[in-house]
From TrEMBL:
Organism whose genome encodes this protein: Maribacter flavus
Name of one Pfam family that matches: DUF2256
UniProt name for this protein: DUF2256 domain-containing protein
Length: 48
């Protein structure tokens, strides 16, 4: 049975400004996820 992925929560990355969606690997700590990728997380100091 296929799952429909239409209603996944999403957030906007504060570094690049692009939206990103919920991922299975973030299931337990979705509230703590702030950046869309490792690249944005590592570059956060440039934009603060």
């Amino acid at each position: 049975m296929a799952h429909k992925k239409q209603h996944l929560p999403s957030k906007t990355c504060p570094i690049c400004g692009l939206p990103f969606s919920w991922r299975k690997k973030w299931e337990r700590h979705w509230d703590e996820v702030r950046y869309c990728s490792e690249k944005c997380r590592k570059n956060k100091k440039q934009f603060t």
